[in-house]
Amino acid sequence: MKMKFAVKNSCLSLCRKVNRRLGAGMLRGGAGMKRVGALAMAAMLLVGGAAGCGSTESQGDSDTITITNVSYDPTREFYEAYNSMFAEYYKEQTQKNVEVVQSHGGSGSQARSVLEGNDADVVTLALAHDITILEEAGMIEPGWMDELESNSSPYTSTIVFLVRKGNEKGIEDWDDLIEPGVEVITPDPKSSGGACWNFLAAWYYAQQQYGGDETKMKEFVKALYENVLVMDSGARGSTTTFVENGQGDVLIAWENEALLTLEEYPDEYEMVTPSVSIKAEPSVAIVDENADRNGTQEVAKAYLEYLYSDEAQQLIGEHYYRPCNEEILQGFSDMFDLNVDLCTIDDFGGWDQAYEDFFTDGAIFDEIYGG
Question: Is the pTM for the entire model greater than 0.85?
Answer without folding.
Answer: no
